[in-house]
UniProtKB/TrEMBL annotation:
The lineage of its organism: Bacteria, Pseudomonadati, Pseudomonadota, Betaproteobacteria, Burkholderiales. It comes from the Bacteria. This is Pyrroloquinoline quinone biosynthesis protein B. Residues 40-249 form the Metallo-beta-lactamase domain. It comes from Sphaerotilus montanus. Coiled coil: none annotated. InterPro entries: Metallo-B-lactamas, RibonucZ/Hydroxyglut_hydro.
Length: 281
């Protein structure tokens, strides 16, 4: 299983200028590309900058199939604007195979009508992730990824501002993802934050070979008494997670200077993701 972090690039390198170098981006992430064979890819969320990067950044050519226009499989963990509006950048080409929960599909049909717009271009084939109602966990598979097994776990992440019912969410509004390589047994788990993942996802985190925490504030963790710790104390709790690699997609918003914060993260074996960062499991 191979993962590539996509942040939209810093200064995208045109495909015609493959030798041109560019510094690493430190901006907020837009997506993670995932592949079971290194040839066929699925995107976990997609921002507008990432959609542009896929078609313009020559540095992605080292990953066969990734910058290809045929990359049309996308898993959405929620309906946040930064996670879904990049779908419009994929409108030219084959239909998008979209894996999402009923709640997310509803949001993108009515509150933020991205899907009706796409029907006028490439079209969308919706593959339901059955996390809804009393079903808080579901296993599913993705076409073109026969060696990977995906599990969606309902989480309590924040709802988007455009949500039809912002005051009361429903199961499936946000999910975390666990991915298992059926050949090697390696496990990958990603969630918006420790707080959003909650108690239901703790077991998945413990089993993960790589834990990736997303672009939300990574500042809280449920302790044994059900309370929440904050700031640098969270790193002590993260130490208890048995994942072989622990990666943060964005710099946490803590009351500590960047230098001290980076030092603390490194001391606890926590990595900060960079644009085009590769993770092989």
């Amino acid at each position: 299983m191979k993962l590539v972090v996509l942040k939209g690039g810093d200064e995208a390198v045109p495909l015609a200028q493959c030798s041109r170098a560019s510094p690493t981006s430190t901006r907020a992430p837009g997506a993670v590309a995932l592949s079971g064979d290194g040839l066929h890819w699925v995107l976990i969320n997609v921002s507008p900058s990432v959609a542009t990067q896929l078609s313009t950044d020559a540095r992605l050519l080292r990953h066969p199939g990734l910058p290809d226009a045929a990359v049309r499989a996308v898993v959405l963990t929620d309906a946040q604007v930064d996670h879904v509006t990049g779908l419009l950048g994929l409108r030219d080409g084959a239909p998008i195979h979209l894996y999402a929960t009923p709640a997310v599909f509803e949001e993108l049909t009515h509150a933020l009508p991205v899907l009706p717009l796409l029907e006028h271009y490439c079209g969308v084939q919706w593959h339901v992730i059955p996390v809804a109602g009393e079903s808080r966990e579901a296993v599913f598979h993705i076409e073109g990824q026969p060696t990977l097994e995906f599990t969606a776990v309902a989480t309590d992440g924040p709802l988007p501002r455009h949500a039809a019912q912002p005051a009361s969410g429903e199961v499936g509004d946000t999910i975390a993802l666990a991915v298992r390589d059926l050949v090697t047994g390696q496990r990958f788990f990603c969630a918006r934050s420790l707080a959003a993942a909650g108690f239901e996802a703790v077991e998945w985190m413990q089993q993960a070979d790589c834990l990736l925490l997303g672009d939300d504030r990574v500042d809280t963790w449920p302790d044994d008494g059900g309370a929440w710790t904050t700031g640098l104390d969270m790193l002590a709790q993260l130490d208890r997670v048995g994942a072989r690699r622990k990666v943060l997609m964005a710099m946490p918003d803590w009351e500590a200077g960047p230098g001290r914060l980076r030092g603390e993260l490194a001391r606890h074996g926590v990595e900060l993701a960079a644009d085009r960062m590769e993770i092989n499991l």
